User: Fold this.
Amino acid sequence: MAVLTDAERFAELVVEVGANVQEGQEVEILADFETEEAVRAIAGAAYRRGARYVDVWWWDALVKRERLLHAREETLAYVPPEPGSRLLRLGEERGCRMWIVGNPQPDALEGVDPERAGRDLMPRLKESTEVVTAQTTNWCIASWPTPGWARQVFPELEPTVAFERLRAELAHVTRLDEEDPSAAWRARVAELKAAAARLNERRFDALRFRGPGTDLTIGLFGSSSWRAGSFERVDGVESVVNLPTEEVFTTPDPARVDGVVRATKPLELAGSLIDGIAVRFEGGRAVQIDADSNADVLRSVAAKDDGAARLGEVAIVDGSGRIDALGTVFWNTLLDENAASHIALGGSYDFVVEDETERARANQSEIHVDFMIGSPEVEVDGITRDGESVPVLRRGAWQI
Amino acid sequence: MPDRSRDLERLAELLVGFGANVQPGQILAVTAYHDMAEAVRAVARAGYRHGARYVDVFWWDMFVKRARLELADEETLDYVPPWIGQRLRWLADERAARISLTGSDSTIFEGIDPARMGRDLLPYVKEVPVVVNERLTNWTAGPSPNPRWAQRVHPDLPPEEALEKLWEEIVHVCRLDTDDPVGAWRERMRAIVASADRMSERSFDAIHLSGPGTDLTVGLLPSHRWLGADFTTIDGRTHYPNIPTEEIFTTPDPERVDGHVRATMPLEVYGSFMSGIRIEFAGGRATKIDADEGADALRSIVAKDGADRLGEIALVDGEGRIGPLGTVFFETLLDENAASHIALGNAYTFPLEDEADQARANRSPVHVDFMIGSPEVDVDGITREGDRVPVLRGGAWQF
Assistant:
């Protein structure tokens, strides 16, 4: 048997367990520049599985930079219709989507007016939230190391050492260092689903997060369920939508969020880095947003539409995941959101809400911005319908 | 490796401001190979500076295509994702500007079964000629030097030198080494269009080419006009579809081509290399085809419908900058502007004014240009009375 390259092992994992490519499917890959080795291996693996066509939408952050620097102000909110209609069609055809994150140009938006940056969220598309909610595609987001990203994550290291370290850490958190990465992920997904099932049994009325700078109560719907690990397409095709994934999440009540919360990790948003986020909620709305850097980007995103200042997700990450243990800030939501418990402003996965009246109240927005609020110092309690407090997470360990 | 950023800026400005002639508020669509990132960013910058509303890049990755040709199920290879044609439709409806960057290395597909290759023509889609004929978009194509292409053009040089040499050549042929490249091209286009008009005025009955290995008469149709490559959209926007462009061209009579011709440069067609091509014509048909290299590949192309008759004749004078370099660029955009050429196969009908003539223009699924001009090849016009009038001598216009 031929020895597979790292890219080929990664490609097999993403194609088989992650996106779970089906015979005859169209596959659309949104790919950062400099992930060619992985993307071409994925194309090969997908064709071997019988994909009908593999379409790569290459994304170059430096072309976007030119727009933000030079385009006329009034054109910045313009989104070309083509990528969105392409996604909706892919959904109708029950296609497969992947996003290969390489973050090759972390400084792409340096010197760009944050106000302008907040107006152009490409390559994020509102249609991608639509197809996720409609559950019409099997999909997967995964990451691949690039030199630029390595410099950002390990600025103190020599470039080649930094790259090697990032490569090794990504391989570790993606469990490519296991003999059988696919089997390792099937086992981890089963653990996460068990934790979700225990939370579902309790049917808490709210969650309360307490820690340095944080005392936040998040109301939960009576009929919303906790989910983890994998998603099912409407016709039952399963995909592990994030590789790695370590979270157990649900859709909160967007009208019952109160208190203050301080982010425990910096946030990368549409190319801007936002550090030291502090948000105050009243009656579900984020009424005050502060940050040590680029607060305006977050404020401008939170003002996008009615739902952008309310929560669409709450997720718990326990201490047995592989990401937080590294102590690395990856400046990337896929990885950082799986390092710690988090909440998201904006759109929700309303399919986790079973009751129709409640589902109609699930938050709607064209944005979805995750930020981390968990750490070993942050305690999580469940509040029962009778008002009792039940410990859920202490120093990262499940209490239920 | 010298810094080419200034040349990139000038090339981008030439393509945006002159070639495609991007207008404020327009969408600018860019088609580029995956390894042309620097050039695309420069084009995007120039586009936004000219007021583009949005620059939409369609990146094409030959290695992903190779994965398909190697591994995909046979019956899926004809599949074309509908969005590519729909995107072109959207661009046409938006009256967008379009820029294609060229300069690829077809050796990426070495070893692929030609029958499988022939079934997947992407990124080409059938909507391309439709949108071109509708004249709704202002567009251009221009070269973008990159390492793989450079290695193909200059295989004997080390990679850095090959790229440097290719850059020097592209700077020269795109007239980026002049103080004002856009001004230089405006002047060159005026000269080209003036030559085309003088040739049209004469309304020759035929063109005769003679030189080493060449004695060929190409009949012209009564209502033919000679054209330079400057186009106008239905909204009246001028654009220059090829940068560089050096040719004037018309559509010949496919039934009146006689004599023999020797190609003055090698060429690459659908991935096959051909050199020393010699063709005999009788009554318009290519009756005998020889070559030092690639004769069989050429014969198999010529066996296709209409491919044994001419669809184009083009003249390039000695002021053109490509031919004197003697470089084969393996890119039609550059190679066909190197020297006077003829094309086997399909014809444009727009150089013909009468419908009766248009009906006679050659039809074929292929169009293969090959170079037959050089300073040693004399070009004469033959009048309807049978008089012979010198047209090009040593590459210089004679009237």
Summary: Residues 181-202 of chain A form the longest helix (22 residues). The interface with chain B takes residues 26, 33, 36, 39-40, 43-44, 47-48, 50-58, 60, 62-63, 65-67, 69-72, 75, 78, 80-82, 85-86, 89 of chain A (CB under 8 Å). The longest strand of chain A covers residues 252-262. The mean pLDDT of chain A is 94.
